[in-house]
Structure formats: structure tokens, C-alpha cells
Amino acid sequence: MSMTATRTLCFTLAAIASGAATLSVGCGSATGSSASAPTAATKVDASRYTLAEEPEGAMGVIDARDSVEDGASLVLVGRVGGAANPWVDGRAAFTLLDPSMSVVANGEDSGSSELCLDDCCAVDRQKCTTLVKVVDATGKIVPVDSRELFGLKVSDMVVVKGTAQKDRSGNFVMLASGVYIRN
């Protein structure tokens, strides 16, 4: 090998080693920055949607379905649940079950205030549950999972304040501006 070829090979190897070191630092930096990158929950101020005190005048889901008009201000109380998966992944939305009702295991005998999550109770479940969507000032759903934003769990008793949304078919959704979690 000639002297020129040896120098060229050395420069090439040095350049490759330098690039590999740069990539290595770059990869290390990227990993470090993604670990400290803010999550969706840290970008949203949960205190904007968390009620410090329980609002008065709460009604259950069953009563609200029967009596509240579309667009009415509403305070609603219930338990997170009433569905096999009461969560909307990545969104501040969940299913709320009337506080007078409870869920029993599928196939278990149920009383008048109990229902299961199987098809046999689907119609009854629809009458005593609603979807709660926590919305911002522009009416858009908050893009953070309720479990992450509020620390909610299935069967937590909550009181939500907001506006009823009903359509002609009787579908009922709660557009919540605030959530209070009972202890």
C-alpha cells in the first residue's frame, strides 16, 4: 500500500470514527431529551379542570337523562364505570354510572339497582350511564387521559359541572368544565 493510500485510509477511518462518536452523542442526547420531554399531562394544567369544592345541586345520571334539556347547565354525580372500559384513551373523557347503580360480575344474579357488563344489561346500562367529556374554553376535549389528568380510577365517585348535550335520539353527553373527586 502506498503512503498516499495509507493516509487516505487513515483519514477515512478517522472520519468514520468521528461520525460514529457524533451519532453516539446524538443518540445519547435524544434519549436524554425524550426522557425529560413533557408529557401531555404536564402540558395541561389540571387545576383548570379540578374543582376545589363540591358544587351543590348535583343530580344522578338517570334523573338528568329524564329531565335536563340540551344546553342546560348541570351538576352531575356518579361513579366512574358502567362499561367494560370506561376510559377514552388519551382524552379527558370517561363513562359515568348513576350513583344508585352498581356493577356486578357477568353471570351473577343482579338486583334492581345492579347490572352487569354483559349484553343482557346493555339497555339498562344505557339508561343509567353517560359519557363525560372534559372540555376547554373553546369546547374541545382536553387531550389528556382522565386517569393521568385527575388520577381517576374505576368506581371513583365524582361530581362534574358543565353543560348537558342531548340529541333527538336521546343520546346524552356531559360537557364538563370541572371535576370534583369525592374521597
Rounded to an integer in angstroms, the radius of gyration calculated over CA atoms is 27 Å
What is the β-strand count? 7
Q: How far apart are the termini?
A: 81 Å
Poorly predicted runs of 5 or more residues: 1-35
Structural class by SSE content: alpha/beta
From the 3D structure, determine the CATH topology: OB fold (Dihydrolipoamide Acetyltransferase, E2P)
**CATH top level?**
Mainly Beta
Helicity level: 25-40%
Strand order of the largest sheet: 1-2-5-7-6
Give the name of the CATH superfamily: Bacterial OB-fold
Q: Which whole number gives the mean pLDDT?
A: 82
Keywords: Signal
Signal peptide: 1-20
Protein name: DUF5666 domain-containing protein
How is this structure best described in words?
- It comes from Pseudobythopirellula maris.
- This is DUF5666 domain-containing protein.
- With 183 residues, the chain is of the alpha/beta class.
- Helix content is 31%, strand content 23%.
- The longest helix is centred in the first third of the chain and has 34 residues.
- It is globular and about 50 Å long.
- The N terminus is likely disordered.
Features of the shown structure:
two-stranded parallel sheet; 5-stranded mixed β-barrel; about 180 residues; OB fold (Dihydrolipoamide Acetyltransferase, E2P); alpha/beta
Question: Helices, strands, pairings?
Answer:
Layout: H1 3-36, H2 40-43, H3 61-67, E1 73-80, E2 93-97, E3 102-103, E4 114-115, H4 122-127, E5 129-134, H5 146-150, E6 157-166, E7 172-181
Parallel strand pairs: 3-4, 5-7
Antiparallel strand pairs: 1-2, 1-6, 2-5, 6-7
